Amino acid sequence: MMLEIVNISKRYKKGSEEFIALENVSLEIEKGDYMAVTGASGAGKSTLLYAIGGLIHPDSGEVLYKGRDIYKQKSKVTDEYRKKHVGFMFQQFHLMPYLTVLDNIRLACYEKHKLDTINNYIDKCSLTGLKNKYSSELSVGEKQRTAFIRAIISNPDILLADEPTGNLDPGNSTILMSLVEDFHKNGGTVVLVSHDPLAAKYANRIITLEKGRIVL
Amino acid sequence: MNPLKLVIKELLYRKISSIVILFTVVVASSVSVAIYTLSKASENETRKIMREQGLNLYIFPKGTNLIDFYSINNTGTFPDKYVDVLAESKTFDAVRHLTGILQIKYPDWKDSNGSTHQIVLFGYKDEAQQKYLPEQELMGFDVKKGTVQVGALIAKNIKPEAPFIITGADGKQYNFKVDKRMEEGRGMMDQGVSFNLEDLQQVLGMQGKINKIEALGCVCKDGRIKNARKQVQAIFSDLEVTEISSIADARENQRVMMNKYGAFIIPFIIISCLLITGLLFYQNVNARKREIGLLKAMGTSSYTILFMILFKAFIFGLAGGIIGFFKGSWVAEYFGKEIFMFTALSIKPVWSIFYYIIIIFPVLLMLSSWIPALIATRIDAAKILSQE
Question: In chain B, what residues touch A166 (CB-CB under 8 Å)?
Fold first, then answer.
């Protein structure tokens, strides 16, 4: 088992109110899975995704990566987990405004021999002529494709995508989802949070969250 | 990508923010350097003025009545070796520029016309360099053996190229080459003749004797004169110290003014710089929350994020410090020329503070960015990155 989520719960406080983001959520993710997480806003989808990604420490329960709880390791180990085993994609792309397309991708490169690989991905994602452009000069589709390459360039075990098509038009959504699908077909594991039925269409597993619980 | 490269790229991208921080540091460092350089110039100026006015401490045989000293010749003497003993003492540091002097009134000097005049003879021992203190530029008279320097009134009574002739205590006539004819307006010196001490001692038959040491008193925490007296009397209980207060006060006032600069203005400017740059760094961290969150999501450790922000502060501190040093030195030079008459041309960058500047300002900037840097390490990446 690559990833095992065991009974995780997470609550937030907003003033005097307590808000349940996740409650006793358990699931298993095998290598090569493509899992879509759906649900209404506030159902806990993003919290689950970031908990898997090592960014939200659950109040209780365990997130086991290859049998070891990522939250019970030293922070250095958790950092390494995010660096080498996880790739993130976000709805807002989060490209560094002062870096070119090439440098934004390089940001996630931890090995020097990656330039050929980067160029291959750039060609594949139709960004060839844009690699020296800054994010302010890119369309939203180009930005998200750059963010996609950045997420997978270090060849992570899991791609965690938080509403990756949320800001894209249907055409760009289709292009992006086919790129994610290619990553999956090449053995990558994908956990995707989305409202978009098109995005969920590619998944081989769909779970639905409601008030922090898996209902489907 | 190398975190340092990322910092440089971010600095170049956020030009206005970078320029504002750099400008703040440059202002703080240039003002500090300018004040320091001007203070040094001011100190040199005072020293030059002091030099013009003479030494401010007189050391006499104990019990000397100064009225007698200036009017009649019955003051006590002491060995000129005392000067060397004081100069070689490890504990004697309240007084500088020790010059042993034999000062005697000579009531019946005859000029070339045979007229008799009362004149004052000064015999100067070479200024003693204090063995255990840093060397300083000499302030005392330097009269070569076999020569004299004559005051303006006496010079009028000696024909050009003619020697100065004086009858010694042994009844012999002594001839000295006139090395310098001083300009008038030097008070008692106008009717005086300055000798090398050994020459005058021979003329007067007072070998090995002096009756005064002139010196420059330092400014010490527990009082200038008190400290000088204590130190002199610890070595020679038969001597006492008198201060020429107008000169000493001028020097004291100058020092106090410089201390005020040092103790208030420079720290005020530096603290203001720290607060402003601290706020600017905080603002910068706030504006970059998403970037910092992204770095965390990509596995960048909190230590690396802390290091990146401190490195940025270091660059600003170093660059601002260096630019400020040259700018401040230029300002001091430019305005100093207008202010300082004697030392105008010698106002130069004080290189000894350059090394402090390139250490102090980077350290200060890193301190000012410390809290923003800690805030950056605590950014909740999940919360920031999931915001629409």
Answer: 388
- Average of per-residue pLDDT across A33-53: 93
Which tens digits make up the pLDDT trace of B216-269? 766 544 566 778 888 888 899 899 888 776 655 665 666 666 667 667 888 898
Coil/strand/helix, residue B158 = coil
Of A98, A178, A191, give the one whose Cα is nearest residue A145: A178
Q: Smallest CA–CA separation between B5 and chain A, in Å? A: 10
The residue-averaged pLDDT of B108-119 equals 87
| pLDDT score for B127 | 85
If one compares B52 and A169, the residue with the highest pLDDT of the two is A169
Contact call for residues B18 and B277 (beta carbons, < 8 A): no
Contacts of B12 in chain A (CB under 8 A): 98
Q: How many helices (H) and strands (E) does chain A have?
A: 7, 10
Is the pTM above the cut of 0.95?
A: no
Which among B1, B302, B385 is the nearest to A103, CB-wise?
B1
Per residue in A161-205, pLDDT (tens digit) is 999 988 888 888 889 999 999 999 999 999 999 887 777 788 999
Tell me what pLDDT residue B221 has. Answer: 46
Return all residues near B206 (Cβ < 8 A) that are at least 6 apart.
B77, B102, B104, B169, B200
DSSP A166-214: TT--HHHHHHHHHHHHHHHHTT-EEEEE-S-HHHHHT-SEEEEEETTEE
What count of Cα atoms within 13 Å lies in the side-chain half-sphere of residue A77?
A: 8
Which chain A residues in 53-82 lie under 8 Å from chain B, judged by CB atoms? 53, 55-56, 75-76, 79-82
- Contact residues for A44 (Cβ-Cβ < 8 A; gap 6+): A10, A20, A21, A22, A25, A209, A211, A212, A213
From the candidates B14, B288, B292, B294, which should be mutated to test the interface with A, based on the most A CB atoms within 10 A? B294
Identify all chain B residues contacting A98, using CB atoms and an 8 Å cutoff.
9-10, 12-14
Tell me the three state secondary structure of residue B77: coil
* Tokens of residue A97, six digits: 């405004």
Chain B CB contacts of A83 under 8 Å are 298-300
**Among candidates A46, A83, A107 on the partner chain, residue whose Cβ is nearest the Cβ of B1:** A107
